[in-house]
Each structure stands twice: as structure tokens, then as C-alpha cells.
DNA-binding response regulator
Amino acid sequence: MVRVAFIDDDRMLLDGIGSWLARDGNLILEGTAHTVNEFLGKNPHDVDVVVLDLFLSDESDPADNVAKLVEAGFPVLVVSVTPQAVHGIDVVAAGASGYLTKDNDLGTLSNAISVVARGEMAYSPELAFAWTRDTRPSKPKLSAQERAVLLDYATGLTLEAAARRAGVKVSTAKSYLDRVKAKYAQVGRPAATKLELASRVREDGLQRESKGSSD
């Protein structure tokens, strides 16, 4: 069973989602909230995937919302009524594990939730199409944790040592690196090996930025 929480300001959706999940058989609803702060304020623990609406009524920034949830340890699947899936690139760059528009059926949503729960990326058709049309600069947005582990690992530390410096488990550090690799792959810049990661660090000036932010 995959334990799911929904953050959405659509009251009808929140009221009805529990009965749909009960019919699915593989998903169980662990909670709902109207904002990210409300969700985090409940001190949630037993949640495998958070399904987050792209635009909430509190006018919070979608990328910031994703970053908050990811930093708190929750895999995030973003859903939206917005057909312009370019927003999906932004939230994935912020750490989301996938993006779906709400015109998909519930079966597609269920499958995407299961994919994210396995620690994989939900490559929806909308997201794939947006990537092919994206002409913005190809420097991905990395979270503070992703950048810290990337810099330590790419500049010579082992994964175990990078994890210790970041104060996280080795498995968590690996998930940060996997996400970094996925973000670079999404912008057409290979980063599958340690050598390639080191090249991306140099190309993007990440070491200089890190020193500047600590001054």
C-alpha cells in the first residue's frame, strides 16, 4: 500500500479523493491540506507521496512549495489544471518527481503515484512534451542539499563521506545525486558518471556560487 497525502484547495476534490483511493486498492489516504504550511504543520510522518496542486489559493510559489516538501523528506507529484506544462519543468527542477495535468484519468494518476513511491520519476506525456519545447538556459535548479552532496562527491569525496558531511544517510545522499543526474539529463547535459558531474560543476560555476553564498 502506498500512503498518499493531497495538498489542494479544491474542496470537492479533497472531499471525494478518499472514496476514490478506497476503490483503487493500492493507495491509502493519509491526509489532506489546503497549503504546504498547513500540511507540514500537522507534523506528518507516514506519507510515501505528496500530490501537490501547482497553484494554491495562498499564492505561494510552486517551486518553493516543492522545495519545502522535498527538504522535509517527501517525494512530490505535482498536478495542475494548467495546460502549459512548461511549469512542470520548473517544479521538477525544484525537486518534484513528476507532473501531471488534471485532464488525465484517475488510473494515470494512480500509476504516477506508484512510480514516484518507488523512487522513480513519473515521465508524463505533458512533461516530455514540455522538455522538447523548452528553450530556456540549460542550467538546472538544484536544492541546497543536492548541491552540497554534488560538490563534495564531484570534487573527490566518496558517497559515504559526502553523506556524512551533509548529515544524511548514504541512501539519501544517493537519492540527491540521482536527482541531480536526472535534472541534467532533462536539459540534455549528460551527468551519469563522476567525471561528468565534475564537468557540470565546473561549467556551471557551482563552486564559485557556493563560496559566494557562504561569505
About this structure: The two ends are 46 Å apart (CA to CA). The first helix runs from residue 11 to 24. Strands lie at 2-7, 27-33, 49-53, 76-80, 99-101.
